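Readers outside the structure-tokenisation community will struggle with the description of the input data as it stands. For illustration, here is how one protein appears when written out as sequence plus structure tokens:
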Amino acid sequence: MASIKEFQVTFDCADPERVARFWCEVLGYVVPPPPEGFATWDEYGRSLPPERQGAGFVCMDPSGDGPRMYFQRVPEGKVVKNRLHLDVRVGTGLEGEERVAALEAECTRLVALGAVRVRLLRADGVNESCLAMQDIEGNEFCLD
């Protein structure tokens, strides 16, 4: 039997710290402490060569249960739809209009943080309702 592996979710983006801090707000994640010997992440960043300053940023589940998320700067912008996206579970156990209300409430909160509402996908008899969105750099995700 194969062993279960821990994994990290990595985002390519233009502004790693900005996108990481957005996802901290979405998921209730936190920025880990800076590396030993540095009082702040800014201090650590200033110690790096200029080409590496601002090139990456991390956020993590404060309970340690969820995956670590790493955001890395890439030179190219997003061009096409993601082949993989996150489903943020905000309507678990809810059905019908109660579920839609929970999705819409979370959507309103995230739009205030810079997310974009794409469309509500209503329940179809097989799948429950979910709400398609984009983060602050256009990466698709769903409120589920």
Residues 8-73 form one domain.
